[in-house]
Amino acid sequence: MGTKRRRLRELAAREQLFIDTALAHIQEEGLLSLKMAKVARDCDYATGTLYQHFASKEDLLLAIFASENEKNLEILRRATTWDAPTRQKIVALVIGDILFSTNHPVHQSLGRYIFTDAVWDAASEQRRTQVLEAYTPHHEAATSIVEEAIECGALDPHGQSATELTLGVWSMCMGMHSLIDAEGLFSTLAVQRPYRWLLRNIHLYLNGLHWQPLLDPFNTQKLDEEVDHIVQSLYPDLCFSSLSTEEPPP
Amino acid sequence: MGTKRRRLRELAAREQLFIDTALAHIQEEGLLSLKMAKVARDCDYATGTLYQHFASKEDLLLAIFASENEKNLEILRRATTWDAPTRQKIVALVIGDILFSTNHPVHQSLGRYIFTDAVWDAASEQRRTQVLEAYTPHHEAATSIVEEAIECGALDPHGQSATELTLGVWSMCMGMHSLIDAEGLFSTLAVQRPYRWLLRNIHLYLNGLHWQPLLDPFNTQKLDEEVDHIVQSLYPDLCFSSLSTEEPPP
DNA sequence: CTCAATTTGTGAATCGCATTCATAATACGC
DNA sequence: GCGTATTATGAATGCGATTCACAAATTGAG
Known about the structure:
Two copies of one chain form a homodimer. Chain A is mainly alpha-helical. Chain A has two domains: 3-53, Arc Repressor Mutant, subunit A, CATH 1.10.10; 67-240, Tetracycline Repressor, domain 2 (Orthogonal Bundle), CATH 1.10.357. Chain A contains 15 helices and no strands. Chain A is globular, with a radius of gyration of 20 Å.
């Protein structure tokens, strides 16, 4: 009987409906005012039905995060399959990350929120695993580029694993996102165009690793040209105001 | 009348009592189960009195964060006043940050939690300012070292401001803390001794900046020796198991 | 097709907890 | 002392998340 298979499909569709609806609510009203009952009602289901899919509100939040993350896969694919020097591919990955973050602002704050003990602990084990697995493609994309770089001699691993060699770039991206999202911090410190600084710092780090070919990150024009080139080659369809060469109004 | 002054002192003391008690509760029970009524009761005050100090539960959380942060000031002072090459002072700052984080695990997660939109927005304007100002000493410590390095010729600023030149180290520290605190992430990826990697990455970055004197971060022995030296010179009184040279049991 | 068993959906009732606010207690000026 | 202003109190309120007794629907055996 194909009944079971059909039912499973229906359940999955309903779950996605809940997830999409909840995400829409967050985008409109903020994380703060997400109401379980409202999500259910807007999907024409009872509150209890929502709870058959998600163990708690927090569980739903993790599910939203994992779901939205899938929209990132396409970006990762573009960077990894691009025919370019490995160093440029890593930068492309970082730029993709920046573009995704700025195009999905909720995803950023959600990401920081769900890894909070309070939220993480209130989600189901299964959902946590799902979230951790959502990182696999990122991890694989980065390590595959590192491995390719080692193979072609652009990078000397000094006996370290590919995973470990991705930590520097990974932590810098994550930390910079956090700093940028800490409202008021950069405006207090008068830091301008933080994403350009992220890219500069990534290059400084890659230079420290002697990842070939080296680039002078204090040559701002060259830096911006590289960004433009990567965006136009790989992400012509994505809005990139966050990286634009234009200075913001004073 | 000195009455007013005395009253102000009493109010400040009571506020600190609330903060300390709430922190103790979090350490014992977790952020999740902090109860406003319980905090008030344990301090022998009514719930309403607590609310005369803090606009909301979230407001209290920001206050705890700002308060705990002050315990860090002493560590910053040691690093900045240390008589050593500027590059070593920066590393000392990073090590101090690591030691503080591992000795105050709640502070870390609290820090990530309060900058969440949901929490940040629910705190009073005044308290937010207080939290942002809590970063001033960190910022000043880092920029003063950068400025000293520029002055003595150990670092070429390439026309960038001291504040901007601290962003790389800052974001790497913050990002690594986030990655480490994301429960299950590093155990899934089998990353060992992440703090050693943070220090290695900091050195790679500093090498990329040509901050003198350069150091080979893949010389693990030398790296560990530097850590030991800094800990023994500056932080002999702090527990540093997180940085210990010992390998963890397999 | 029928019907009992089982599964799934429902939403009103429950519960926990942050927050408020009418009242009581206290401090202050005279 | 006494009236007024300030501060403390904790029971009452309100808001949702979560649950659960019951209803509806599905299944499968005969």
